[in-house]
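Handout, tutorial session.
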Amino acid sequence: MDMHDLLSHMNEIDGQLVLATIMEVEGHAYRKKGVSMLMSAGGDTLGSLSPGCLEADLIERVQDVLHTGKPQFSVYDSRDPDDLSWGRYLAAGG
């Protein structure tokens, strides 16, 4: 979802919210730079950053972000170090 969509629907999620945004993309990815999602401490989400590959890890980080009030930066690399295995496990490959 883009930011306009998130803001217009954010009242659909109860409680404090954490915003996750893709800052950079290398290679093929389902979602591009700038896409965002909202997550609540209760596990509710609005939007997505991937077809499900990243969201579980991001939801695990919500409590820490809400507790500390500090942003976190995460790098997800789904590329296989073996070029011969390209595309074997994940469709994203980015």
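The second record follows below. Compare its token runs with those of the first.
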Amino acid sequence: MKTAPIVPGRWDPVTEGGERSPDRAGQHNPTADWPSEAQRVFLDAHELPRRWAGREQFTILETGFGRGHHFLATWDAWRRDPRRCRRLVFVSIEAHPLQRDDLARAHAGSTLAPLVAELQAAWPPLTPNLHPVDLDGGRVQLLLGFGHVPILLPQIVASIDAFFLDGAFLEEAIPGHRAAQGTHQESPQESPPSTHPRTDPSATHRTHANRALERLGRLAAPGAIATVCNVTPPVLDGLAAAGFQTDGMFKAGEPGGIAVARFAPRYTAPPPSGGWQAHGGPREALIIGAGLAGCAAAWALSRQGWNCRLIDREAGPAQATSGNPAGLFHGSIHADDGPHARAHRAAALLAARIAGPWIASGRVAGSTAGCLRLDARLSDARAREVLAAQGLPVGYVDWVGRADASALSGLSLPSGSWWFGGGGWLAPAAYAAALLAESGASLQAGQAVASLRHVPVGGHQGGGLWQALDAQGRVIGAAPVLVLANALDAQRLLPASAGAWPQRAVRG
């Protein structure tokens, strides 16, 4: 499904409240003393820091990042708490994010200047969908969703301990309560709930709205707490339908009202769909293959507290197909902004974010100075039409004609090109080795896996160990979770019960 272009918020330091956007005039705006307000309205209401004390991970979901006041206050409280959880995960959905420079101006003179500076340095380009951002050495993981709540909330897969919710945003997810995405929306302060426009949304929007409301309950961890500002009756009704109880916990005296609710469903909803299931056993994984895929898997799992062991038949990481002398990373742009384009955009942005510092320090050979992608199918006029329709931010992608492309590259080029300012190239083997080192995983190099065996343990479904065997039938590695990252050879190792998985060889 095509995603709508991001319309940035506008920072106005003169007008009270600051952020302004075409369809969000009445959001909950923190006061000048926002750290105290955040402590009282959000942290105290969520019984923090008590509830995260001693935990491996505590996860928060917010609708409406705004200037980041709630996130910064939470991050600061987490840093100051000696009993803090090991990892703080903060998910925030924002339809109209600020530009990087506006974010800095909005926090000029802040008492949390070091945190603001780190957040500003990591602030992603304003492209739609999800942006993972590591802060505080990776101990604080911020997942920014740029787009509308009904579209992005169903994409989140997590177990949420605390919800920071803005009723103005939640009303986007109430069927029949708001107009379809992209229309002007009044705020709760501008118009009482009973006079809000009742224009029916499109069928597509209604489907996403229903999924979004249902998702709140499915995302909630046992004992989760939700705080909601800009409360209206439809929002309270929607929360109740999702399993949250708000009776007797309404806080007056706040703009639009503040409700505090606890997750207490009448029944336990099934886990989120999409093939994801929580692993309740030891966080240990056996990864077959130490190329780019295997090393990336180890890196990603390590960020969630997993210990990994990799086995590869080669003498070191990325010695087979992943060992190309150079690899490009850049986004992709198509008129319909389909899954292919969105996946490439997300992957290229993440690669640049991870590898950029390693390239700058010389740890990994490469460059982030930009990348040209020739496209002889498009005329200059047509390419600029596609670019205008996408609404992607300046600096992320642009179209350059043949003459300018030739000048940029120093070569005589046959056509115009897409210019990805954040793209570049890197040495895949060095990148894989860096990912592996950062993960802390162990590598058993020079060992071929001849077969796999699953040994049930504990007598319950899904329990047990996966064992990797060599040609003599000896166990060379074992773990409760198995990752096959060995390209076409994975088909040979799959158990017969898994059936045949569709695979084909591609270059690289």
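Points raised in discussion: Confidence is low (pLDDT under 50) at residues 20-28, 177-210.
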